[in-house]
Design a protein that fits this description.
Number of helices: 1
Distance between the termini: 64 Å
Helix content: over 70%
Shape: rod-shaped
Order of helices and strands: H
Number of strands: 0
Structural class: mainly alpha
Largest sheet: none
Length: 44
Amino acid sequence: MFESLEHGNSFSISGFVIRQYKILKSTVVGKGISYVGSNIIRKW
């Protein structure tokens, strides 16, 4: 029982970390795209 509980906790923690990483990555990518787009518009 303890082993399965520990495995479940580690799985939920890893899932949470992956979810946070995806959110961070999406925001960083969005900021990068907007930054590059504004630079391109400024150069024109």
